[in-house]
Specification:
alpha+beta, 29% helix
């Protein structure tokens, strides 16, 4: 299955529905991170920070990895600091060259597209405040596999040795 998603559908199908159901792992790559809030149930007015969803996953034994290009916004950091399980449970790598955006759930389902991990990017904000984004949600192994390999290559530092931005990267696995 491969489904085109835009705007609010990215939030509903990926952030609200797929990520919280992960059983083994969630890998997220994004250039930018800002605060993002998620409904506690579809249509609910009660919202929680997305980092709480990630903390809950870690509490269930799900591996959470995040690759991002720059430090998260202050609101995201404040939310992150409220969930101590994230401090040692979520693995993060800062790579200033990352610009691809994807979320891979359990190695079998993936979103990839233009949206950063922000409320406006993921379609979680109102129609007047969200970005115009698009992407694809798929469970096709021929697409999920290469996405996971790209993520893992950055994660393990496969490009670090010849990287022209290495001086700006405090998380290079080769250092």
């Amino acid at each position: 299955m491969m489904t085109f998603l835009s705007d609010r559908a990215i939030y509903e199908r990926v952030i609200r529905d797929a990520v919280p159901r992960a059983a083994r792992r969630v890998w997220i790559a994004t250039a930018d991170i800002k605060d993002l809030y998620v409904e506690t149930a579809p249509g609910s007015d009660r919202m929680v920070p997305f980092v709480k969803v990630l903390a809950d996953l870690i509490g269930r034994g799900v591996e959470v990895r995040l690759v991002h290009a720059k430090e998260p916004g202050p609101n995201w950091r404040e939310d992150f600091d409220r969930y101590p399980g994230l401090w040692s449970g979520m693995e993060r790598v800062l790579c200033p060259r990352v610009h691809f955006k994807c979320i891979i759930v359990d190695g079998v389902k993936a979103y990839f597209g233009s949206a950063n991990l922000t409320g406006a990017g993921m379609g979680a904000k109102s129609a007047r405040n969200r970005n115009f984004e698009n992407g694809v949600l798929t469970d096709e192994p021929t697409i999920v596999g290469p996405l996971a390999e790209q993520f893992d290559a950055v994660w393990r530092g496969a490009f670090c040795r010849d990287c022209g931005r290495r001086a700006f990267c405090g998380d290079c696995p080769l250092d």
